[in-house]
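Interim report to the steering committee. The following record documents the input for Light-independent protochlorophyllide reductase subunit N (427 residues).
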Amino acid sequence: MNRPAAIPAQTCRDAPILKQRGQREVFCGLTGIIWLHRKMQDAFFLVVGSRTCAHLLQSAAGVMIFAEPRFGTAILEEGDLAGMADAHDELDREVARLLARRPDIRQLFLVGSCPSEVIKLDLARAAERLTVEHAPHVRVLNYSGSGIETTFTQGEDACLASMVPVLPATQARELLLVGALPDVVEDQAVKLLSEMGIGPIRVLPAPRSAEMPGMGENVVYALLQPFLGDTAAALDRRGARMISAPFPFGEEGTTAWLRAIADEFGVDDETFDRVTAAPRARARKAVAAAAETLAGKSIFFFPDSQLEIPFARFLIRECGMEAIEIGAPYIHKGLVGPDMDLIPAGPTISEGQDVDLQLDRCRAARPDLTVCGLGLANPLEAEGLTTKWAIELVFTPVHFYEQAGDLAALFARPLRRRALLKLEAAE
């Protein structure tokens, strides 16, 4: 009861994975700051790098640096990058000026835009030194957002993983929800679980440092995002245990995610049905409206956000689409395995990217819809292919029941637009 129906006999979990390494087309992990700085109200993200990184954040966030309240850049000039200047002293002065100007900061993240070998600056050591200097008012942590070391969503993973070792110890039995979501979506998840009698419920990242969850062997956690592999490993090292489930996209995925947590806390079927029946019905109705456009259409995923496998599961099983290729930057079966178990064998599963070879496969397949990054979308549109920007799927609220219809509509919209353009051209 309340389990996924029609589980295929042969699934994508054991299918061979096409692994290619070459030129790739993805954003770097710095872009995670754009949503993380809004989530953590007393944190500040100081990007340590070059002017190129400052320009990236300006463009990606659509604002001038420091126009938003909780992120900025410490620009290293060419001399620092060559190791010819004492960048540690300059960083210390920049941090001191920042904290003097912003006494509300309780967590300061030093975000490396390049590997330490490039900028000649050990940010891990700098974070330890600055924590001692500014304790107990401010804790300084560091992680890498370098495009050499991280892809688009791995910035969030690296950030959350850096926080886990300093979480306080607890022996309490708690549920921890892991991953940054818009507050309204997070509140929906907490409300559903609370109505089942599950609690206490904590979240990572918490809005403020004083509300950070404890960590210990009685803590169980459920991931909200499929790209949090390093964070999951860090939580496991602290003794917490993961609840494995498909990710909460669409009616089926949300139900399976909630059911796995409910089973962990001994929630009976009657209670589960009472809490979920109405939102499940709304989700099915909303998805069905978009599925009229999506059913029978083919889709091709370029790797971008690591959301590709759960999205493919949703589109295949709930919207009737056919996946030709499902590409992801990295495939962590410990996280996305439950979603792969629900995808019938058939699509090519690819990890990593040689963009030229993947473009050749896409052009040969001529899918009805191609999900890709901004840099590939316009050229493919010019070749007559219909595309969907992968980045929009990250910035739009798409988790849980109330957003299931919105998720399906994001994929249906480009197909409807293409159909209207053909109709207008015919007239």
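The domain at 29-150 is CATH 3.40.50.1980 (Rossmann fold). The committee is asked to note this result when reviewing the revised timeline.
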